[in-house]
Design brief:
The complex is a heterodimer of chains A (170) and B (421). Chain A is of the alpha/beta class and 170 residues long. Chain A has helices at 2-7, 32-41, 104-115; strands spanning 12-17, 23-27, 47-55, 66-74, 79-87, 93-95, 118-120. The radius of gyration of chain A is 19 Å and the shape is globular. The model of chain A has no long low-confidence stretch (mean pLDDT 80). The chains are: A alpha/beta (170), B mainly alpha (421).
Chain lengths: 170, 421
Amino acid sequence: MDRVTAQFPEAVAERYLDRTGGAWAVIHAEHLPKVAAFLKNDLDFKLFTSIDAVDRLHLAENDPRFEVVYFIYSLSRHEHVRLKVRVSEANPELPSITPIFKGANWWERFVWDFYGIRFTGHPDLRRVLLYEEFQGHPLRKDYALRDRQPLIPERPIKDIFRGPGTSGVS
Amino acid sequence: MADTHKPASPPAPEAPNPDIDAYAHEAELEAHLQTKRMYVNMGPSHPAMHGTVRMKVELEGENIAESDCEIGFLHRGFQKSCENVTWTQCLPYTDRLNYVSAMMNNFGFLNAVEKLIGLEIPERAQYIRVIGSELHRIHDHLTCVGATGMELGGFAPFLFAVEARELIMDRVAELTGARLTTNFGRIGGMNRDLPEGWIEKVHKTLDKVMELVAEIDGLLTRNRIFVDRTKDTGVISAEDAIDYGWTGPCLRACGINYDIRKAKPYWVYDRFDFDIPIGEKGDNFDRYLMRIEEMKQSERILRQALKTIPGGPIILDDWRIALPPKPEVYGTIEGVISHFKLVMEGIQVPAGEVYDATEAANGELGWYMVSDGGGRPYKVHVRAPGYPILSAVPYIIKGKMLADLIPTFDTINMIGGEVEQ
């Protein structure tokens, strides 16, 4: 993290070393792809672990509302780093890092699915675990625990005997 | 690819001639087959898809031109459920993440919570965790290897694997009281101690299990059909595997030496003598061999751990974390109060956050937790090892034969419970 701060002093908003020795830094959203590429290519943080978001609605500091956390691991140093990016509720949008880490593809879809944070430049941003017709993003803290979704109508099938036909999978 | 099957130009229509029409079927036989892309849904009820994944496959002849993986048929709302119960009540949910190695998920979760609180658990509890984890690692790998053998047409290896699993399950049942979802760990230690005579039983069980593993090894590793279908199929390069975030046996099959038990030893793993098997090519056969080898290494760890396990307490004697013993609850007011507070409010975890990973059967099982200082987790993120591995499947089977999808899907050992959280 020292080297990231030295390289991009304008990108890092906050740095921290937590009790268990995990290093993390809060990055401004527009610098995220640059920092991720630097970590991957120059500092050998190649193993892409995961992405998740924290909805800080009920926490003491909750502005901006979301915090997207990136976990990256270095196989040569055996070290984890965490990049955090804060996203506002009004405009939940981040640059995608799928061009840098292929593994980010499904995790970004996961975050879109459950928190409703869009990733610009993502090749295929669809829901990953829920179906397309699902309303809302269930891991947000204001999504009710026992909320019900109406059953969706069956998707059209052209020919019941031959299936969807050549126009594509329904 | 497609061009070779298409007729160069359609034959010009001719005037009907009754003499020639008698032989029309012969011309039909010589004509090129009409080809078009075919869309096939594999799963979710396809037996090889284990009931939880649907692959939309676009076929060109027998080759997969495009594929799209649709998961979420088992979605259980793991995170949301955990965020609405106390820390201890999350434990049954963690069991069901990877339901063939429940203890590993359980202990991984506990390890992260204990780091967040800053606890050091008793030595005997650490040994019991290692023993439970390694037993379940063998159990998990047996399931994977047996299922791979079965889905490639060999039923006997599966029966051997089930027999060996049954023996391990019996030991697990004696240890924890449950066969599948064990719910065995507690924050700060273990639920209960090893039963009497259990260590000798495990030694005998291991003898039998390793015999059966050798049997499976002998049946599959030099089997012509098995080798032909797994060797050089589902290949992924080491760079791609890292880029996709693979861990565990699947990553080590590509030749990368990364095992958290060696890289960042937790519990008492640094006291045992064991090796990390490494593959070369990263194909299905390597991934299969990796699991056979790991079972042998787990046996080594287990035997050492069972020999050297120390005595002592199995859970911390701290009433803010562990339930007080029953005589104290019934006899003293302090016991009643702490029991009541632990049950009603849960363990008070200090505010903060942690990322901690343990080596589960399929790879790095990471936990990211945020606590707001109360008895309930504010956020529990699980980094299931199967999720990034599955995300690479559409990439590695692109352009390959449809039949290669089955061994690839088997050897990555995707578990619905953890992928679909």
